[in-house]
Amino acid sequence: MQKLSLLFTKDGLQWHISKGKSVLQEASFFVTEETSPNLVEEKLDEILQKNDYQEISVISALNHFSLTPDTFAEHELGYKLISYNAPVNEEKEELMLSVNKKFGVQFYYTFPKKFYQKIKSKKLPTKFNFSGEKFLNSIQVRNSKEIHINLYHHQVEFFAFDNRKVALYNNLDADSEVDFLYFIMFSLSKINFSTTETYFYIYGETSENETFISELKKFVKNLKLVSENSSKKNFVLSY
């Protein structure tokens, strides 16, 4: 059985078609000054026209989200919670929920309704998830203070763990790797994580973000590259 996996990022769409553990086809598209501003929607339409898959997996890394304990059940407040982090348009955004029992947290997130409706119209078994939950589900925490960083094209998300519990999650869109560094270091200062005692783990588009990694190494003592995206091996899409 073949599966279509879709990853939505800020102004980007990545997809691959897989069978079992083998990736048969893959592609990435990002909006630039030279492309159509509707590139993501156009490329989504193209891939949905194909009929050589039987199920769909959708991962949203769009930074319209809110993190709560998994015991929080006032789902009608989902849009309001997300609005504290980003502007929300209820008419154009579908409210979604991803639960991570492993760490006892859940993510309310929104996904563009026009994309949601196009995907659902295929009438295939479909699973939607938030990148933060999928990332979190792959993490093994061994030290008292850890930072796990997942790098994208012009985007970064990270988790901070204190005594094996989630202390912070955040997600940033930016064109500058310097902004990534400032974002991480500023966040650490707010939760009183020392760069000398904290272990850093990095995943994803490491080659594309070499400046960020080299600059981070100047400030931190313990840093490890865990998983690097390569041909037919995208960290979030594959694991």
Automatic annotation (TrEMBL):
<dbReference type="Pfam" id="PF12864">
    <property type="entry name" value="DUF3822"/>
</dbReference>
<protein>
    <recommendedName>
        <fullName>DUF3822 family protein</fullName>
    </recommendedName>
</protein>
<dbReference type="InterPro" id="IPR024213">
    <property type="entry name" value="DUF3822"/>
</dbReference>
